[in-house]
Amino acid sequence: MFWFGFFASVGFFATIRNASQATALSLSTNDGGVSRRDLLIGGTAALITTSSPLALPDCVHAAGDNELPIAVLGASGRTGALCVASCLRRGLPVRALTRTGAWPPPKIDLRAVGFDGDATTSNPLLTVGACDVKDADSLASSLLGCRAVIYAASASKAGGNSKDIDADGVIAAGKACLTNKVGRYVVISSGSTTRPNSLGFKFTEMAVAGIMTNKRLGEVGVAEMYANSGKSSFTIIRPGGLDEPKVKTIQGPTALEISQGDVLAGFVNRADVAEVSVEMALSSAPNIQNTAFEVYYKNNVVPVDKKYRKYLDPDNGVVKRLSGNTYEELFRGIKANYDYLGDP
Ligand SMILES: NC(=O)c1ccc[n+]([C@@H]2O[C@H](COP(=O)([O-])OP(=O)(O)OC[C@H]3O[C@@H](n4cnc5c(N)ncnc54)[C@H](OP(=O)(O)O)[C@@H]3O)[C@@H](O)[C@H]2O)c1
Questions:
Q1: Is residue 339 in a domain?
Q2: Residue span of the signal peptide, if any (predicted)?
Q3: What is the mean predicted confidence (pLDDT) over 167-176?
Q4: Which domain, by its residues, includes 235?
Q5: Distance separating alpha carbons of residues 192 and 200, to the nearest angstrom
Q6: Alpha helices in the chain (DSSP H)
């Protein structure tokens, strides 16, 4: 699918489409910090635990349960496969869930995230399973016993349309996470989902019928579902355009910028989106919970609409442009419970 229009669109934003979009996620300015401990990545290889439901703890705590797998839905996709490989590289148990049950996908170079090891089920860190996100029963059983879930599926010819996969599937997977007391639910969405009158939204919406509308419905549905979710939390990642970057390997935190508001954008490759997704799955830091943010390379940032040009100024006082030499630094200024900036 094509997000080239993402930048072509720079210039013409408008208003929130409906009240539900505006109110589903509350704007917040609380600024909880990310501790080093919260962001520590478990590096110890461990056998996959296949706990029965009765053996599950009250809630799976993302930061501390390195023996439980991270599940990746849509693991055959270009970003999903790299999320799986990123977990393997880190020595973390991972459950690759694909529509067909086949993994790894033959055309995806897993070295993009620095993984050059055994990508078969001979690797004790890896389990592979079939999970069609349209099937609630399959989601419920597939996500059982996971510490975190990354939703990397999106509409495909054989898999389902954007309503099925980018809205209903996102919500159904969130429901399965809550039922199974999965600690963290990370959704890979898209920049501009809250800007229905922008050219970027319109272009993408046409390229894959209804996809931006449905991604937004998925975001809102997840936020509503997690309103009283106790210890479980979600994070919505809104990447910029994925197709343009010519360098396919990880560029890392120093190359990235994060902002919140859905007013700034840029390109970013799938390897970096996968890395950020796994970092988000691993963290239980308070400030990244139940929130949404945009991520893109900081070397070519543009406003999503010309009226948001003022937010390019690092001293604009409203939208923070976050950067850092480490993920810890990059994520430190993320605000919890945030959706997007209302029009001034
Ligand atoms: N392209 C861009 O510039 C851009 C920009 C911003 C955000 N995004 C978003 O970033 C995410 C990752 O994008 P991508 O291009 O890496 O994804 P992708 O390669 O298109 O992968 C999507 C995956 O979803 C799977 N899928 C479809 N229906 C399914 C079902 N019913 N059950 C389980 N899996 C199913 C597909 O599997 P099958 O092929 O087997 O059906 C496919 O492997 C997507 O949400 C995308 O919309 C993209």
A1: no
A2: 1-21
A3: 98
A4: 5-331
A5: 7
A6: 5-8, 19-23, 36-39, 78-89, 136-142, 162, 169-179, 199-207, 211-225, 270-282, 327-331
For atom 40 of ligand 1, which residue has the closest CA? 99
255 in any annotated domain:
yes
- List the alpha helices (DSSP H) in 252-342: 270-282, 327-331
Tell me how many domains the chain contains: 1
153 alpha carbon – ligand 1 mean position (Å): 4
Q: Which of 245, 259, 256 is nearest to 304 (CA)?
A: 259
Contact 207, 2 (CB under 8 A): yes
Does 74 sit in the ligand 1 pocket, CB within 6 Å? yes
Per-residue model confidence (pLDDT) at position 307: 86
Centre of ligand 1 to C-alpha 152, Å, is 6
Q: Is the four-CA dihedral 325, 328, 332, 337 of positive or negative sign?
A: positive
* Amino acid letter, residue 306: K
What is the token pair recorded at 274? 């996968």
DSSP per position, 213-260:
HHHHHHHHHHHHHTTT-TT-EEEEEEE-BSS--S--S---GGGEEEES
CA of 314 to the centre of ligand 1 (A): 33
Does the residue 138 lie in any domain?
Answer: yes
Ligand 1 contact, 266 CB (< 6 A)? no
| Mutation pick for ligand 1 pocket among 9, 113, 156, 186 (CB with most ligand atoms within 8 Å) | 156
What CATH number is associated with residue 61?
Answer: 3.40.50.720
In whole angstroms, give the CA distance from residue 238 to residue 259: 10
For the CA of 105, the closest atom of ligand 1 is 43
pLDDT at 123 over 70: yes
CA distance 69 to 53: 15
Rounded Cα distance between 15 and 51, Å, is: 47
pTM of this prediction? 0.87
Would the pLDDT of 18 be above 90? no
